[in-house]
Specification:
- The structure holds two protein chains of two kinds.
- Helix content of chain A is about 5%, strand content about 35%.
- Chain A contains four helices and 29 strands.
- The radius of gyration of chain B is 16 Å and the shape is globular.
- In chain B, about 55% of the residues lie in helices and about 10% in strands.
- A two-stranded antiparallel sheet of chain B has the order 1-2.
- Chain B has a single domain, classed as Cytochrome Bc1 Complex, Chain D, domain 2.
- The two termini of chain B are about 30 Å apart.
- The chains are: A mainly beta, B mainly alpha.
Chain lengths: ~425, ~150
């Protein structure tokens, strides 16, 4: 089942209509602590009826992924260290939802952060660390992390997003150090390498033990391959499987103008959600997914012309979105604060595009996809918009905020991080 | 392939061209006649440079020259773009570049080499980049590009 946003403007129109009717049948359950009050302007966000938002913190640094403890503290992974710290702990001592006590640990920038089985896991672009937590989910020894994975390669997609399953494995993204495996990267008419050597040590998700020290890539298992770059990923507890959001390749028009128009290049390839089971292949660089034709299309580097199909051995996406929206955060919502339709559905933070010119840029919002029994059960909709502060983004540098990470609070609040200005948002539902 | 100039962008650029000579007149009224001829020549160079920019550079470096955080280096305000070392700049266009760190920010995307552009096209687009947005620096000539190309070969 592939529910697709064919046309964002139409979808937005439908969503704005649905705002008017949403929430009518929802109960008036108020599960958020009474002291949590939304900002008067909803933190600048546009949300469905009954939802509101507040800024937990501002200007904390370029905030990539985030995780919230059972006590409501937020750990933020910073892209770059600020005052020598690459992980922040945001604590709200007054119970008003605003972080008033910010401390730090870790002297490395990076993207990945998660909590599982009494440990805080955090990644730089080359290593993964973990810190033992106490009963209040506070790091016991700030200066003595265990290094569980080391020596990971970087390149043009260096983020090491991480997630754990329920059997003490950690999954780490290893992004492709190439756009489309051309002999000369991102170069007009340059053919693809055959076979693509990048697949040997990148362009996939590697599985490691979550508690062995100093593992290298050779100690891991290439769990899923043919994934150009994954930043948003989550373990779906309902299906007990890994879901990832792939960043699709760039520059179809710039490198292959004989096959693609600028407009096609702006819309393609699809940004895809995949369910990754062990050994799955999503097809990069040989194919890309086209949500307009609903087909896996042979990449032009490998003889494709925008119409020829390929990828017989490649899996189909679970959901396909328009091109270049840059899905950086994925979260399956298991909370009870939001209305029933949100339960077990997927929130996706779209960081926002840079290569849809001459069309306006797109993304810069959080999308929701309803799920039932582990499969999408309805159309995607823009859930939280307004991060950019602009009606239209022409260049990504103009956007005031860019959503990146997602986390669920113990009360079911949804947290969103911003890696442009370092705002941490909290979205709550109080009904009508 | 060359159509699709974002209209707003074009208008802004045209506006800036219109205001530039006025500024010069205000600052140096006595040399206005002398600078008028080079300014007209410069205008043509910038228009040619912009055409190359739209086709070759815009997708990554953006209409505002701001680049893309994490990925593509900014040109507006970049020391390497407005600096005195023109050879370094010309080399980047001819040879491409693999990621760069600027002001505590990493830009990780590969920049493709562009040896297929003529000396004049490279001179024009670099002059354009050195004199657009908030940038103001001396022009790059086709002869300078030719000299660097000869060194590389």
């Amino acid at each position: 089942m592939k529910k697709i946003i064919h046309c964002l403007s139409v979808t937005l129109a439908i969503i704005s209509l649905s705002y008017l009717t949403a929430g009518a049948s929802d109960s008036l359950k108020v599960t958020t602590p009474a002291g949590i009050v939304a900002d008067a302007d909803n933190a600048g966000l546009k949300l469905p009826n009954g939802f509101s938002a507040l800024k937990v913190a501002e200007n904390v640094g370029k905030s990539r992924h985030i995780v919230v403890t059972a006590q409501g503290d937020i750990y933020v992974k910073l892209d770059r260290v600020v005052n020598g710290k690459g992980v922040l702990r945001l604590h709200d001592s007054k119970g008003n939802g605003k972080a008033d006590n910010i401390t730090g640990l870790g002297n490395y920038g990076g993207t990945g952060i998660t909590i599982k089985n009494g440990y805080l896991y955090a990644s730089s672009n080359t290593e993964v660390f973990r810190y033992k937590l106490n009963a209040k989910n506070e790091v016991i020894n700030l200066d003595a992390p265990e290094k569980i994975i080391t020596g990971l390669g970087t390149g043009q997609h260096p983020s090491k997003s991480i997630v754990l399953d329920n059997e003490n494995h950690i999954y780490v993204n290893q992004g492709a150090y190439s756009n489309s495996c051309q002999e000369q990267d991102r170069t007009l008419g340059s053919k693809g390498k055959m076979p693509c050597p990048v697949l040997n040590d990148a362009a996939g998700i590697w599985q490691y033990s979550a508690d062995k020290l100093n593992q290298t890539q050779a100690d891991g298992v290439r769990y899923g391959t043919g994934l150009r770059n994954v930043v948003g990923l989550d373990w779906n507890q309902q299906t007990n499987s890994l879901f990832v959001m792939q960043h699709g390749r760039d520059q179809l028009f710039q490198n292959w103008p004989e096959f693609f128009t600028e407009k096609q290049s702006a819309e393609l390839p699809s940004e895809c959600m995949y369910e990754i089971k062990k050994g799955a292949n999503a097809g990069w660089p040989y194919i890309f997914y086209d949500h307009i034709q609903h087909k896996k299309i042979l990449a032009p580097e490998y003889g494709g012309d925008g119409k020829k199909e390929g990828g017989k051995d490649a899996i189909d996406p679970v959901v396909a979105f328009p091109g270049h929206l840059a899905p950086d955060g994925l979260l399956f919502y298991t909370g009870s604060m939001f209305p029933a339709k949100y339960k077990n559905g997927a929130f996706i933070a779209f960081h926002g595009s840079w290569n849809r010119a001459p069309l306006p840029q797109e993304g810069y919002y959080v999308v929701f996809v309803p799920f039932k029994n582990g499969k999408p059960s309805g159309d995607s909709e823009v859930f939280a918009n307004g991060f950019s502060g602009l009606a239209q983004v022409n260049s990504p540098g103009e956007a005031k905020h860019r959503p990146c990470g997602l986390a669920q609070g113990p009360d079911g609040s949804l947290y969103v991080s911003d890696d442009a200005k370092g705002t941490i948002y909290r979205i709550i539902y109080k009904g009508k | 392939m060359k159509q699709l100039i974002p209209s707003l962008c074009l208008i802004l650029v045209l506006m800036s061209f219109q205001t530039q000579p006025k500024k010069q007149v205000l600052i140096k009224p006595k040399t206005a006649v002398v600078t008028a001829a080079p300014a007209a020549g410069m205008k043509a160079v910038l228009l040619r440079g912009k055409a190359v920019y739209l086709q070759q550079c815009l997708a990554c470096h953006q209409a505002d020259g701001g680049g893309v955080a994490h990925l593509n280096a900014p040109l507006n305000g970049a020391a390497a773009v407005v600096g005195k070392d023109k050879e370094k700049l010309i080399r980047i266009v001819l040879k491409g570049m693999k990621g760069v760190d600027i002001d505590d920010e990493s830009y990780n995307n590969t920049m493709a080499p562009h040896p297929e552009l003529t000396d004049q096209q490279i001179a024009d687009v670099l002059t354009y980049a050195r004199n657009s947005w908030t940038n103001k620096a001396s022009a790059v000539s086709a002869a300078e590009v030719k000299a660097v190309r000869a060194k590389i070969k």
